[in-house]
Amino acid sequence: MESLKLPPHDGSVISVVDMHTGGEPLRIVVSGFPDIIGGSVLAKRRYVREKLDHLRQLLIFEPRGHYDMYGALVVKSELNEAHLGVLFMHNEGYSTMCGHAVIALGRFAVDYGLVTAPQSPETQVNIHCPCGLVKAFVEYSNQNTGKVRFHSVPAFSFATDITVDVPGHGEVIVDISYGGAFYAFVSAEKFGLDISHSRTRDLVDAATAVTNAVKRKVKLHHPSSPDLAFLYGTILTDGKDAFSDEPTANVCVFADAQVDRSPTGSGVTARIALQYHKGLIQLNQTRTFQSGATGSLFTGKAVQETECGDFKAVTVEVAGHAHYTGTASFVLENDDDLKNGFLLK
């Protein structure tokens, strides 16, 4: 059978490589976007949000994507040491950090030649995320890539034991921590739920209620940029925060009630920072984190103390494995009433 030709279409063709990390999808744009204007990755993020958001919707929304689709747009970085810059896309807009995407992009950067001279047994890939430079280390042997670990931007506990009023549940005590994005943390048991066995909808409803309650009460700030000062979501945990060799499970609900299928790389980063702040773990103690949604695993550990403004912080190493699922070329026809996409909630 001859190779498939593109169907009739209007405008440019957007080509992507699809991957997943621990079950969480990543759609990497390789061509078809116009030039992204901006002197920094954060400025490019603002430009895409203001001028090109219809393209995010085209790729992430149905019928080409789905409610929980996630995307990455590779852009030029203003940092000389960066191999690539990246903008993260989800159902609501644009994140500042995404660990599962960094793990996938590490493999992608080596496999697609963004790193010109890969080294065995491990190749370093410097990825400039909106939150800052993240260093990924990709297993490389016999021209094959494998597992990836990355070192985070400075991660820190923002506030602990905050009481918020959650409608239907009363007063709930939560922690807030930063791992490239801000998350609220609370045990699922406080809502009578089990991370691995409760209905996903019930977990989503509880986490969304917490997110909204925290947004009403807490004003976030970040020492580097106001663009980073927003609550990305809530991570429900199994409450097992003390160090153990056994996995600890969590589910992250972010953006517009989007559910992460992986253990959440930036969430693992923030959770490690929180545990370190509370004295529950020490430097270089590796913990295993399990997705309550799929059972997939990441590992995480605090590898170095550092600072972020006035916050005592740590650099966190997170490790996981991404896999390819395919490639695609997306088109639109101008007479398609649904050409810009839609979401079912």
Automatic annotation (TrEMBL):
Swiss-Prot/TrEMBL keywords: Lyase
Keyword field contains Lyase: yes
The EC number(s) this enzyme carries: 4.2.1.77
Primary enzyme class: lyase
Lyase found in the keyword field: yes
Transmembrane domains' residue ranges: none
Molecular function per GO: trans-L-3-hydroxyproline dehydratase activity
Domain of life according to the entry: Eukaryota
Reactions mediated catalytically: trans-3-hydroxy-L-proline = 1-pyrroline-2-carboxylate + H2O
PANTHER family: TRANS-3-HYDROXY-L-PROLINE DEHYDRATASE (PTHR33442:SF1)
Family statement: Belongs to the proline racemase family.
Assembly notes: Homodimer.
Name listed for the protein in its UniProt record: trans-L-3-hydroxyproline dehydratase
